[in-house]
Every structure is written in C-alpha cells, then in structure tokens.
Amino acid sequence: MSTRRGEAVALAGLLALAGVTHFAKPRPYDRIVPRALPGPARRWTYASGVVELLVAAALAHPATRRRGGLAAAALFTAVFPANVQMAVDWRRQPPLRRAVAYGRVPLQAPLIWWALRVARARP
C-alpha cells in the first residue's frame, strides 16, 4: 500500500468511525450543534454522520478519492463552528474536559491539510 493510499484509507477510517458514532452515541454531538442552526440538533447530528460516511466512502475508492479529499476538507471546515461552540460551552468544565474542547479547535487545520493532501495525490 502506497503512503498516499494509506493516508486516504486512514482518513476514510477516521471519518467512518466518526460517522458511525453520530448514530451510535448521538447525544455528545447534539450538545455541540451550534444553536444558531435551525431545527432540532439531532437532525444535524444525523445529517453530519451521513455526510461523514459518504465522504469516507469516496476517500476509500481511488476513482472518487480526489473529490472525497476535497469534500473532507469542506466538511472539516463546516464543522469548525461546532468545535468553537463546544469550546465556549465547556469553558467552565474541569481542566481535562476544557483541554479536549479547546484542542478540537486548532485540530481542524491539520485535518483540512490532510484532506487536501489526499485530494492532491495521484491515484
């Protein structure tokens, strides 16, 4: 397995795992859906889980990997407000929980970089 293919498969696995957890354990995701979004939080949780699974599938196949990488970068950008919401909501949590919430915010940049790297790779 080439390094770039391995990166794509690893990113697909990460997104697939995240997508599945949106359905298996939706409550933590419901809590970080920005309140400015219309409708119930659970709808957004499930919708983002579906998108994560679709993007994971696109990344897993060489024919759709480039588009999957671009979609993953867009997805990581789109969920940034949820990470900010979590950081704001958890600012009075115990230090470990606060560190997790704050750590998610800058983590988006390397995830976006990774997705774009996968998108640029030759099949």
UniProtKB/TrEMBL annotation:
The chain crosses the membrane at residues 44-63, 70-88. Keywords: Membrane, Transmembrane, Transmembrane helix. This is DoxX family protein. It comes from Micromonospora antibiotica. The lineage of its organism: Bacteria, Bacillati, Actinomycetota, Actinomycetes, Micromonosporales.
